[in-house]
Specification:
The chain is α+β, with helices and mostly antiparallel strands. The chain has helices at residues 10-23, 36-43, 47-59, 88-94, 113-119, 158-163, 167-173, 192-198; strands at 63-66, 70-73, 78-81, 99-110, 126-136, 139-148, 178-189, 205-215, 220-229, 233-236. It is 29% helix and 34% strand.
Length: 241
Amino acid sequence: MLDRNSPVPLYYQLSEILLNQITGGSLKPGNTIPTERELIEIYGVSRVTVRTAVEELVKRGYIRREKGRGTFVASPRIQRDVARLISFSEEILARGMKPGSRLLALRREPATDRVARELQVEAGELIWFVERLRLADAEPVALNLSYLRLPQGVTLTESELESEVSLWTLLMRKGITMAEGDKTIEAIVADEWAAKLLGVGRKDPLLLVEGVVYGVDGTPIEFHQIIGRADRYKYYLHVVR
């Protein structure tokens, strides 16, 4: 129960109690959480304390509100390992979910200054551009923009990308192996385009991951921008001293 002598605010103690029920499995994804009135009666706190505790868990992505329906336990976030070079499909499969992909665009286009710099080619040189909506258990979770520097004679087709969920697996079949990479992660807000495709509100928080992936000889193969739902993604890194 709540410790009223603790310097820890009551709202935070209550949010941690609810979080323990979620992570412990007594409240499962899709379950409704107790109403404000129920939480007030159970824990003997004010309406303000309850609302602040619930808002804390909404911000952290553990629960979600649906207007006119109630407050529900959110689906668990997809945890991605920053320290490993692993594809989206491999990560989703490792989490026990089914990966999916919806092809939005495939074309050859001149490299912009930014893309040219990342792929180490001349500005204006033709590169491949692939835009996909990435799914986990059929739910949209990320937008993936891939700019590809492919060897001469290697091509991509819409039918290939629609039948193969993993771009990296498709490239491997064509003799291209991803060996190492660099990445950055930053917080952004959803614009109208991203909000519509990802099913979130405009200006909702998103995570932008940008990275360059290199082949075995050190040649840049892919510059990617992955725009992920902040309520469905979290990244982790194991470090040692």
